[in-house]
């Protein structure tokens, strides 16, 4: 993990520091299966297994903004550290939208934005150096979709992506087949014909990007 991303996670812990929720509301018929496991442990010691079921169901059948804010730093930290964790990044970042995070206090929004910027930059820097049909790096593409799910404007991120040739080729190769055969992006979390999906497709098909990815 890069130093900026590590610091951004620490900023999340500071911004969202609060007492542990005494109770988490949920659907009576299933909340026992979707609650946080081992919630007696310190926040930073909760594992992906402890938080997985809660995170998937958050704002659907369990949870509220109050408990989401408490667990948010650890949820985001696990998402950056464990690429195989379920829920995926798209589901995790969609919780921001469901929690109406753009209405939160400015210092909380800033902590989240700094974290997302640092996470995106780390994935730009870590993109695999060799791109071929056997080695497709979807992590950056998944995060781009996750940013959309969070309700964040994608243009600044696409502009940044366009300056990283290896990262740009990774995103292009992940989407090339479905763009050609189905006129859509490969990630199933994109909503068909949504503004963001169309923006990304237009970006990938632009002459400037095509000149790079087909060079």
Description of the structure:
The chain is mainly alpha-helical. Helix content is 60%, strand content 0%. It contains 11 helices and no strands. Helix 1 runs antiparallel to helix 6, helix 5 runs parallel beside helix 7 and helix 6 packs antiparallel against helix 7 (139-149).
Question: Would you count the extended β strands for me?
Answer: 0
Shape: elongated
Number of helices: 11
* Spatial separation of the terminal alpha carbons: 31 Å
Quaternary assembly:
single chain
Mean pLDDT: 90
Written as H for each helix and E for each strand, in order along the chain, the element string is HHHHHHHHHHH
Strand content: under 5%
Radius of gyration: 18 Å
Question: What count of structural domains?
Answer: 2
Poorly predicted regions are none
- Structural class, by secondary structure, is mainly alpha
* Helical amount: 55-70%
**Biggest beta sheet attributes:** none
